[in-house]
Structure formats: C-alpha cells, structure tokens
Design brief:
284 residues, 11 helices, four-stranded antiparallel β-sheet, 13 strands
C-alpha cells in the first residue's frame, strides 16, 4: 500500500542520477566553512561540510516517476534554516527591525522552507549596503584549502589540466615552491567574491602551520592551505574596504556556527580583485 507523500516531502525531491536540492558541497566554500555547506576561510563553502555526504539514502521514498525524496535532506535543510534565522535574530550588531524580520521567518520555515532561503537572501541584500565599512588599516589574509583553491581560484585552462583537487594537491606538494606554482595558476579579475571574502589580520596566523591554522580558524578541511596575503596598501589602492561581519553574512555559506567575535578581528569585504593580492604562502 503506497504511502501518502506530504507537501513537505514533495518540496525536496532529488532527481534520479542528480544532486539534491540541498547538496551542501556546492556553495562557494572558498572561505572557511564552519558547519554545513561552504567554508569561511576555506572559509570553506564549505567544500564538503562537517561529514555531510553527497550520497543519497540507501532506502529512498519514491515520490513520483523520475524523482526521489530523502527525508534526512529535508530535516537538515529545515534545521539549517532555523539556525540561521536564530543567528540573524540574535545578532546585537544588526538593527532591531532586521532582527525582528528574521525572527518572523521562523514559522514560515516549517511550511515553506524554500521561500525562507529566498527571504533570508533578500534580507541580507537589503542590510549589507547600510553596514559601515573602513579602509584596511592592517594586512589581511585568507586561508584556502586546496579543494577550494582548485575549484574556484584556478584559471580554467589550468583547472582542466587536473582531474581532481587531489591531483592538484599532489602537483603542488611535488613542486619545489608550491606557493609560486599556485601563483602562476591563479585566475585574474575578481579573486574573491564579496560573500566569500572572510579575512583575518595576517598577524593572527603568523608562524602557524596548517594544523595550527585549522584549529584557530575552525576550518573543516584538512591542511595544506594556500594563504592569500592581502597587504593594506594594495587593498586600499584597489578600493577594497572591510567591515565587521554580521549575522546576515552567514547566510550564503550557511555558516551554522558563526557568532559575533567567534574569530577575533575577523573581517569581510566587497569583491576583492586579484590586484589586491600581495602573494601566496604554503602552509602544510
């Protein structure tokens, strides 16, 4: 006897042979990710977050011909929505009306989870232009796991040369100077999109190896890392401005462990051009 499929299950179908609506490893995790998709410093859109698997359930529920539904994906998505709503609503650095609007999305999450993501995105877009920015006063850095670097920061012709991020990691480790080799492969134009532009003062990771960096910045991906060094003078000349992150910044990468001041002196910016880069450092 067939089971009646709820409206909620119908909203989260996984096409046969394809990825799910909530495939966590697809956000630009270029920054390191906390939990869930996308790193922040790695900021990991999250490339594969916190043990999240891309594999579908072994016992999917048939919804209709050509589609499958995975209840664990629905629950996971709903929990993400509720946690991000709380992150925004509980951030004292956001205007009161913004926190109130976020809190009002709580009831909508249970019935229209897709709509909640859309509303959260719109809320973020409406808030960010009004947040105060400043000219960088210190040198900053961004720590990038190799899978994120390979996926988002390589010139297309170079990326096509390596079948996987693991292939690229082995290539770098075999190089005499991994940082110099990676620098030659770097893409031009916009190096770091605004939503992934999580930065920390370079002094905060001075002298740390990859293990130390992972511990300090809560990066999900293992070392080695490529550290993008962004000198204050180059950032200023190229128009880069920084600001203190707010709860709305956790929305694109679904940074479920973000909290104000969680990473001391952390900053985020608008788009960062390749001309702002002072160099790369290899941290195994």
């Amino acid at each position: 006897m067939s089971r009646r499929v709820s409206r909620l299950e119908q909203m989260f179908v996984w096409p046969v042979g394809g990825r799910g609506v909530q495939n966590r490893g697809t956000s630009p995790g270029w920054v390191h990710s906390r939990i869930g998709p996308g790193p922040r410093h790695g900021w990991g859109d999250r490339t594969k977050q916190a043990g999240q698997s891309d594999s579908p359930s072994a016992d999917p529920i048939r919804v209709r011909r050509g589609t499958r539904c995975y209840p664990h994906t629905m629950v996971d998505t709903l929990e993400q929505a509720h946690r991000l709503i709380r992150i925004v609503a509980d951030d004292p650095g956001l205007p009161r009306h913004v926190r109130r609007r976020a809190r009002g999305l709580g009831q909508l999450a249970a019935s229209e989870p897709r709509l909640v993501w859309e509303r959260l995105g719109r809320l973020r877009e409406s808030v960010i232009p009004g947040l105060p920015v400043e000219i960088p006063a210190v040198d900053y850095a961004r720590c990038v796991p190799i899978p994120v670097f390979w996926r988002y920061h390589l010139r297309p012709a170079r990326q096509a040369f390596f079948d996987t991020a693991e292939d690229y990691r082995r290539y770098l480790e075999a190089s005499v100077d991994p940082a110099a080799a990676a620098m030659q492969d770097l893409i031009g134009g916009i190096l770091i999109p605004a939503k992934n532009s999580w930065l920390i003062p370079a002094t905060h990771i001075a002298g740390l190896d990859g293990v130390g960096i992972r511990s300090r910045l809560l990066i999900d991906d293992d070392p080695p890392y490529l550290v993008m060094m962004l000198p204050a003078d180059r950032m200023g000349v190229t128009g880069v401005r920084v600001r203190e992150p707010r709860g709305v910044d956790a929305i694109p990468g679904r940074l479920l462990r973000w909290s104000p001041g969680g990473v001391p002196d952390e900053r985020i910016d608008q788009d960062i051009p390749a001309d702002a880069l002072g160099g790369l450092e290899w941290r195994p």
